[in-house]
Amino acid sequence: MYRFLLTPRWLGFLALALVAATVMVLLGNWQHGRYELRKAVNHRIDVTGTMTPVPLDTIITAGGTTGTPGPGPWSAVEWTRVTTTGEYDPANVVLVRGRTVDNKVGFEIVTPLRLSDGSAVLVDLGWVPAAPGGGAYAQPTVPPIPTGQVTVTGAVKLSESRGTAVDRAEGKLETRRIAVPEIAAELPYPVRGAFVQLDTQAPAADAGFKAVPPNYENDWLNLGYTVQWWLFGAMTLFAFGWAARREARGPRERGDRATPEPELASTA
């Protein structure tokens, strides 16, 4: 009944269906891996948000290596809460434009914190709105930055991808991404290899800085794609089986319209 499946035509259909289903399953597996990765990041944000801060030097050394403690991958230390003491360098404030908080576009203010060993770590002090009436990219009025020694506590953040050029406008550095290497190239001292998202500061930061909320990953989107690709793979094999069964049933059982036989002409 199903011997037609051994014909070159149907073997070709089967091979095509198997290849398509395999590709879809692999795409689903890749999306599932992305889901697990993003889920782990979100879990880390939740866990480290309540942890006791550790000294900055145990996480990001002056040479830029990382650890927990000791050497380790960057991803193992992101969102770890750290604390350190130093002095801000207001002459090298970095305005990071095009940043959105509460559906409003403004700037994040990143300032180098000079440490006792001569190096510095970039600290994201928070978000401020753009200058009124000047559009989303109009340079803001930066709230006062403390002078003298300050103790900061915050989360370790990795350098953002797709780093952009750093320009100097009106005496301040401007960029679109917090990319540590690009910013460090504009500063006259060594810079640690990651930056700190400020939580608290002593003395307290100016009230004009608005805290930047944690950037949770959209892991549910990847989970949805996972299910979608796996369903597509199953549907491909189901479609092949349905077509094969329909073919095996024959034209009459399928309900196909039979080709009428020609009538013989009558002779008088």
TrEMBL record:
Residues 249-268 are annotated as: Disordered. Keywords: Cell membrane, Membrane, Transmembrane, Transmembrane helix. It holds the Pfam family SURF1. It is a multi-pass membrane protein. It is found in: Cell membrane; Membrane. InterPro entries: Surf1/Shy1 (IPR002994), Surf1/Surf4 (IPR045214). GO terms for cellular component: plasma membrane. PANTHER family: SURFEIT LOCUS PROTEIN (PTHR23427), SURFEIT LOCUS PROTEIN 1 (PTHR23427:SF2). Belongs to the SURF1 family. This is SURF1-like protein. It comes from Asanoa hainanensis.
